[in-house]
């Protein structure tokens, strides 16, 4: 009663499936039409002539049920010409070989004839053909190499400029050694040291001895050369960072460090020995002390503390004292006064110089007042410029000069004090430069005025007085 025959059930299922298919037919037709239209609109999906000729351009072709591989024509190797010059710089010039059209047509015709007469080529024959093509390319390369290559010609000025920018080993000739030794010894600074020592000798209240004067000046100069050479030996890595000192002989490698030390010993030992044996032991001791202070105290202190400026001022004050002791053999107040002149003069001189070299000293790692304490640098320069006026007044008190010296030296002392005051107030490069150039002529002028106003010696004063009358002697019996 509740069962449905199987045929009737299958018929109902078939009717329902047929109705669903009829409903989906319009949708399928619409989707097919849209796909066809999209295919027609996009030309990239069309089958073109390039698609049809794709197989024709393949390197592998099938002939008579056998697989053969055509040899890919190799390009001719590019000719490389190496231009070797004195500076060991290799330049490669590429040259494209010319193509002979007649030879190319002949090669193509021979390949066509070979392909017609021999349709089946074995792998061994193709290898032989590769070798033949390579030989042909080598022959063409040899023919091209016979031609003159197009090399860019470099002018002499451009070549010298390029060589100057490159690192190269410097060759030192014997004729260049005097100039190298002069720069190693800081010949201008040594000349200033010898001049101050000569001034100290001349200011001493003793008769002038030309031979002793020459020997003491020579020994002082040799000691100064030794100290300056050792100073440059210690400061090579720091001098290379400064524009002011980067062209020194040791920095540029013109001489070896051993050569520089040998030169310093060759100057220092004879210089100290000459001052000790030929002059007097006190002057020799001062010369050796000056070398020690400059090389072992002042040089390392430049990278540690600003006290290096005061130590350097003591080093600069010793040469006039050496000149005085070379003449008298004693350390007297007059010698200390001359040393005081040099001590005070160095502060406005060096502080003004270092003010415009602050960047250089910073790169070199030196602790100068102008770098770390700029305010103190200006104050110290002004203070010691005014101190020169007091020292000039003290000279006649100690019996070194007459009272004329403080008066005639007052204008130049006031002028350098005025420039030091401007440097203290402004602190610019212009005021520092003016103070520095003033100090260059101030010291020689001050020493010359002191020598002009030198107090005469006692023996000269006594020689100028008339002889005392002699009392008559009476004989008493």
From TrEMBL:
PANTHER family cross-referenced by the UniProt entry: PROTOHEME IX FARNESYLTRANSFERASE, MITOCHONDRIAL (PTHR43448)
One GO term describing the cellular component: mitochondrial membrane
Protein name per UniProt: Protoheme IX farnesyltransferase, mitochondrial
Keyword set, alphabetical order: Heme biosynthesis, Membrane, Mitochondrion, Transferase, Transit peptide, Transmembrane, Transmembrane helix
Subcellular location: Mitochondrion membrane
Family per similarity comment: Belongs to the ubiA prenyltransferase family.
Transmembrane segments: 189-206, 282-301, 405-423, 435-452
Function: Converts protoheme IX and farnesyl diphosphate to heme O.
CDD domains named among the record's database cross-references: PT_UbiA_Cox10
GO molecular function, one term: protoheme IX farnesyltransferase activity
Enzyme class: transferase
Membrane topology classification: Multi-pass membrane protein
Pfam hit, one: UbiA
Organism: Seriola lalandi dorsalis
Main location: mitochondrion
GO BP terms: cytochrome complex assembly; heme A biosynthetic process
Entry-linked InterPro entries: Protohaem_IX_farnesylTrfase (IPR006369), Protohaem_IX_farnesylTrfase_mt (IPR016315), UbiA_prenyltransferase (IPR000537), UbiA_prenylTrfase_CS (IPR030470), UbiA_sf (IPR044878)
Stretch forming the signal peptide: none
Catalytic activity annotation: heme b + (2E,6E)-farnesyl diphosphate + H2O = Fe(II)-heme o + diphosphate
Entry's EC annotation: 2.5.1.-
């Amino acid at each position: 009663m509740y069962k449905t025959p199987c045929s009737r059930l299958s018929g109902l299922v078939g009717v329902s499936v047929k109705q669903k298919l009829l409903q989906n037919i319009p949708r399928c037709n619409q989707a097919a039409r849209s796909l066809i239209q999209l295919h027609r609109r996009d030309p990239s999906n069309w089958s073109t002539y390039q698609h049809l000729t794709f197989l024709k351009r393949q390197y592998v072709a099938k002939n008579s049920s056998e697989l053969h591989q055509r040899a890919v024509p190799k390009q001719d190797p590019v000719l490389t010409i190496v231009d070797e010059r004195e500076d060991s710089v290799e330049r490669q010039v590429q040259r494209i070989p010319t193509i002979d059209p007649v030879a190319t047509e002949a090669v193509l015709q021979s390949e066509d004839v070979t392909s017609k007469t021999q349709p089946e080529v074995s792998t061994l024959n193709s290898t032989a053909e590769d070798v033949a093509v390579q030989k042909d390319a080598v022959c063409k390369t040899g023919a091209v190499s016979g031609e003159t290559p197009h090399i860019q010609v470099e002018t002499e000025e451009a070549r010298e400029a390029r060589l100057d920018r490159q690192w190269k080993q410097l060759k030192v000739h014997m004729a260049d050694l005097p100039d190298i030794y002069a720069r190693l010894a800081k010949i201008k600074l040594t000349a200033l040291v010898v001049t101050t020592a000569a001034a100290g000798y001349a200011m001493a209240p003793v008769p002038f001895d030309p031979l002793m004067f020459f020997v003491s000046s020579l020994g002082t100069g040799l000691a100064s050369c030794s100290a300056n050479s050792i100073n440059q030996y210690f400061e090579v890595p720091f001098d290379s960072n400064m524009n002011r000192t980067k062209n020194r002989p040791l920095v540029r490698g013109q001489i070896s460090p051993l050569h520089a030390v040998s030169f310093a010993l060759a100057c220092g030992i004879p210089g100290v020995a000459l001052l000790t044996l030929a002059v007097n032991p006190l002057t020799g001791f001062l010369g050796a002390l000056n070398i020690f202070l400059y090389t072992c105290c002042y040089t390392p202190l430049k990278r540690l503390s600003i006290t290096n400026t005061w130590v350097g001022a003591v080093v600069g004050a010793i040469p006039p004292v050496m000149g005085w002791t070379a003449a008298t053999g004693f350390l007297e107040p007059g010698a200390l006064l001359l040393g005081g002149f040099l001590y005070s003069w160095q502060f406005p001189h060096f502080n003004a110089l270092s003010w415009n070299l602050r960047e250089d000293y910073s790169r070199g790692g030196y602790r100068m007042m102008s770098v770390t304490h700029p305010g103190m640098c200006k104050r110290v320069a002004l203070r010691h410029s005014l101190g020169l006026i007091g020292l000039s007044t003290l000279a006649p008190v100690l019996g070194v000069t007459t009272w004329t010296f403080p008066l005639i030296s007052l204008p130049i002392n006031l002028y350098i004090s005025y420039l030091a005051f401007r440097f203290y107030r402004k602190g610019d490069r212009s005021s520092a430069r003016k103070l520095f150039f003033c100090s260059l002529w101030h010291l020689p002028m001050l020493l010359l005025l002191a020598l002009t106003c030198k107090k005469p010696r006692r023996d000269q004063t006594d020689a100028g007085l008339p002889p005392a009358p002699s009392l008559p002697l009476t004989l008493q019996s």
